[in-house]
Amino acid sequence: MLNRKAFAEFSASLGSLCVADDTVLALARVLKTGKLRNEDKGLLKEAEEFFTNVISGYKWSENPSISENSIQCAAALTDAINAITIEMKVGSTKQFLRYVKELRDAAHQIYEKGGASEKKVKDLQRFFTAYGYSQLEKADEIANRKGTTEASAWLSRVA
């Protein structure tokens, strides 16, 4: 059985996985129709905010300080690094930061204008697919910790 902290981490990972999946589907609709549906706007706004937090987390890592959102930004940075290392090749920290800014700008463009170039949409899709996989791996790791056999069995049925 999961303790409260592990259950909170497990739930957060599964929630992030669902958001990632919904975002990938919304982006697929953008590719198919050429425009963002009104009901999907919130997902792209969240994506833009996520990438903004990643950038803030990156800056925070260079000059750590305690603020209201430092934990959220540091966590976003960690999640982005985990996602990017799954399938994408970003070698240097400068490349990483440039790539995240491009993803943020693409999410913003889709949110504000309802669409973007096919390449930008596919880049976002690729990121959120990898992000979903990284969240699934995180949930699996939590479920497979000692004493969490019930969660592990449940996760193996839904994965």
Describe what you observe in this structure.
With 159 residues, the chain is mainly α. The chain has one domain. The longest helix has 30 residues. The radius of gyration is 16 Å and the shape is globular. The protein starts with a helix and ends with a helix. The model has no long low-confidence stretch (mean pLDDT 86).
Largest sheet: none
Percent helix: over 70%
Task: Give the ordered list of helices and strands.
Answer: HHHHHH
* Low-confidence segments: none
So what's the overall shape?
A: globular
How far the N terminus sits from the C terminus, by CA atoms, comes to 19 Å
Radius of gyration over C-alpha positions, nearest whole angstrom:
16 Å
Total of domains = 1
Strand percent estimate: under 5%
**Content-based structural category:** mainly alpha
Quickly count the helices.
Answer: 6
Mean pLDDT value: 86
Number of strands: 0
Quick summary:
This protein has 159 residues and is mainly α. 80% of the residues lie in helices and 0% in strands.
How is the secondary structure organized here?
Blueprint: H1 4-33, H2 41-62, H3 70-87, H4 93-113, H5 118-143, H6 149-158
Helix pairs in contact: 1-5, 2-3, 2-4, 3-5, 4-5, 5-6
